Amino acid sequence: MKIMRRLLALLLLAPSLALAAVTATTTPGPWDLFRGTSKVSTHATEAACVDAAKALNVARSYTCRTSTGVVVSVTIDPPPPPPPPPPAVTATISAAPNPVSAAGATTTLSWSSTGAASCTLSALGQSQAVPASGSLVAPVPQPLTASLTCGTATASVDVKIASAPPPPPADTDGDGVADSVDACPTVAGVAPDGCPVVIPPPPPPPPPPPPNGARVAATNGSGSACTDAAPCSFDTALSVAGVIVLKDGTYPGVGWNGSAEPRRILSGSTVRAQNPGGAVIGGLWIGRSTRKDTDIVVRDVRVEGGVTLYNTQRVTLKNVGVHGPLDVGTNDHTNGNTDNLIEDVWVWASGQRIIAINYRADRNVWRRVIVRGDGCGTAACAGSGNPNVGVTIYDSADVSFQNVVVLDRVLASGDSPYADFACAQHTPNQYLWGRNEWLGVISINAPDQALYCEPDQVIAGAQSARIVDSVFWNGYGLNLARQGRFAVDGVTITNKGGSDGVRVAPELSGSGTTVTRVTVGGSGRYAVNSAVSPSQCNVSGSWQSAYNQTSCAGAGTAAATWTLPQRYGVDGSRFGDAGVNAEQGVLLPWPNDARIRAEMCVGTSRGLCSSPSVTEYLRTR
């Protein structure tokens, strides 16, 4: 008997479901016995169907047929998750400093972005494409909003101009000590309770009317009368040598501006503010390489942008605030800058490697000059070949620094440190260094050396410099090296670690240098590290050793205390005049006290600017 079997075919799912999960459930059916097309019987299994056919015992063909039930389940796999969204575009921008100290000062705009390839920076109606992150230095002529657009993200920063600081606290007796801390605020003298009070000089008289013949200028002046009642323009007033009086206001720069000389001060002229500090000049340059300007006086003004005495003789700056560098001298010519007087001047600047310099300029007197550096922060100020300095005597001779004060100087990130006071001579066989002096000078809070002097060549047979009656407080000491014969006498130093209090380098051992009456406190390597034997030394504090190279004759351990130097030099005197460097009694009160604080403390409260006055800041430490 021949048994035929049929197989059921399953239709495969369409390729579009290839990623689907497919399952099939089968249910076997009964087996039917057929004779031809007639069903004979039904059986549970194939074997039972075959046995039934046999049992019929008839020789013929039979067919056993069955069917299987199939249930197919298709489960579609979930679609893959969508790709993550692109990162959100962000933008940030900041300005430092903010606020800036004055109109025209600069700020550094720094910005960054994520998710954007480039950005657009906008300010004061102008725009420029910039990378996704970066910084730039921008002037701030007026309050402004700097906007940054990076794709769909925006950010902005408002840059402001600082207002002048509040006036100093009340000081009824005028002794420079605020009433709130003065034990005898109404007594100008020694009170019964013993409180010491400096007796101030009488208040200055009000500004006199312009002298006869003076030419008076105003920012809106016109005509040619140039009188107090009918002032003329600045240029008209300067066109004739004589006394020029400036009414309150801001005047354009004087002298060479880098491309031209639109106006200048004629030799023999005096330019002064009618009200001290009321007239502001936008930069001052005196002299040209082909013209020496002489016998010029500039007084009672403020200069924004710096001062350069370029080719001068007998020029005087008196009661002048200089916001920017102060340069006396140049290497552009060999005509010299001699017999000048810088008296009662205050200088402060940022973005400058050297704040004030006397360069290839002989026989100059700097008297009662305050210097502050607010950090440079440019590539020109970085690296060992670009030392940052407060004030220096460079390639010069017969220069007298009298009661010059360098205070609260700071270094920006990357600035190469050097000194508050410096000296140098590096021109072979020319501009030999010597007969210079630092009398009653003060360094406060130096971020590097208080005084560092290392001339290469000095005037043979002459004393190179005197450093007398001076205070170097909370810095990194005094360092003399290379060449020179120095006299150090009556110096007080407090060191803040990592260096020597006083160092006279080994190469000066036979120079004839003398070191006497030095008091050193604080901490560091050696308190007195001198190649010449010092005398009358006092050392206190924490040191690796009190002395090195030599020992001190008359060594003591008295603590370093803040003691102000004497006032030096007859006011108005120049090199060669009688009394030009003579002691004049007590240093305080400091002249122009209120003006100095008002001008130097715009936008900062550091050091001096945390004190009511210069006088009070210098009184005690």
Q: Notable features of this structure?
A:
about 625 residues, 42 strands, mainly beta, disordered N terminus, single chain, 4 helices, elongated, 4-stranded antiparallel β-sheet
Q: What's the SSE blueprint?
A:
Layout: E1 21-28, E2 31-35, E3 38-43, H1 46-56, E4 63-65, E5 68-75, E6 90-96, E7 106-114, E8 118-123, E9 126-131, E10 134-139, E11 144-150, E12 153-159, E13 215-217, H2 234-238, E14 243-246, E15 249-251, E16 270-273, E17 279-281, E18 284-286, E19 293-294, E20 297-299, E21 302-304, E22 307-309, E23 312-313, E24 316-323, E25 326-328, E26 341-349, E27 354-359, E28 365-373, E29 387-394, E30 400-402, E31 405-407, E32 416-424, E33 436-439, E34 442-444, E35 449-453, E36 465-475, E37 478-480, E38 486-496, E39 502-504, E40 514-530, E41 535-539, E42 542-548, H3 593-600, H4 614-619
Parallel strand pairs: 13-14, 14-16, 15-17, 16-20, 17-21, 18-22, 19-23, 20-24, 21-24, 22-25, 24-26, 25-27, 26-28, 27-29, 28-30, 28-31, 29-32, 30-33, 31-34, 32-35, 33-36, 34-36, 35-37, 36-38, 37-39, 38-40, 39-40, 40-41, 40-42
Antiparallel strand pairs: 1-5, 2-3, 2-4, 6-7, 7-10, 8-9, 8-11, 11-12
